[in-house]
Amino acid sequence: MEPVQPVFTELKNALNNKIVGQPHLVESLIIALLADGHLLVEGAPGLAKTRAIRMLGNHLDGSFHRVQFTPDLLPADLTGTEVFRPQDGTFVFQQGPLFHNLILADEINRSPAKVQSALLEAMAERQITVGKVTYRLEDPFLVMATQNPIEQEGTYPLPEAQLDRFLLHVPVDYPDAVVEREILKIARNEVFSEESEGEPVVVVNKEQLQAARREVMELYLAENLEEYLVQLVLATRRPENYGGEVAERIQYGASPRATLALDRCSRARAWLAGRDFVTPEDIQALAFNVLRHRVLLTYEAEAEGWTVDRLVADLIQRVPVP
Length: 322
Hints:
Number of domains: 2
Helix content: 40-55%
Order of helices and strands: HHEHEHEEEHEEEHEHHHHEHHEHH
CATH architecture of the largest domain: 3-Layer(aba) Sandwich
Distance between the termini: 36 Å
Strand order of the largest sheet: 2-5-8-1-9
Number of strands: 11
CATH class of the largest domain: Alpha Beta
Radius of gyration: 21 Å
Strand content: 15-25%
């Protein structure tokens, strides 16, 4: 098989050409795909969250489905249900939208806990159980959930234990004036043509994705960097080792899922950059997205204006780099 890393570089470039001003979101999407995980994207409306996952679906050999989460949504609307056939008196299972490769869970915090749990169970177990029958979900299976931070009425915030199921928590912000003008140009062009004529479309098939995932997991991670990665996560659980003031800011630290996520994602970032080894910068760059939704601050720390991002930056300064 030909090298697959150049294919993903082309994929990244193709997505950046269509999703201007959000390179961090594009990279996070591809890293989640390579690391076989899911991501939660938080940002105001109109920041290309939906467009990003839809464009990735256009470049991936798989199926894409968007689910708009609303307060009246039911778990069966996601998983599917058994439908009665009166002609022969039998029940036939009708698959729901989760039986696709790429799922956009739009505004996930607008649905109640029962619906959220149905989605998060599929994310963790990669299977759906209806009655006495368990159905395996096809690989790849990637969920990108979005939530709007400015809306509080009629929302059901995800519990912290459920947030832990997401590999990454990625915030997106407004573009600057230069990017805004570029968005205008792209939007005008797409009114007349969805795809530029003659433009090659990069399509990643499932064999290439599996090969890329194997290469990512085989990437070299030095033993001292592995220890650094572990100590960075442990610092959120044993903050007293780095000063009493740090311990007063953390209520709960990150779970072992954070260590696994940081390992896989830092390998994926290094591989995507064309390197065959992980650097401390890879670990530090991913630490924010990996820990942002897994660390709980104390009330006193929040009252003093601390955020998890500020805390992670402080821990990066305190934990010795090998």
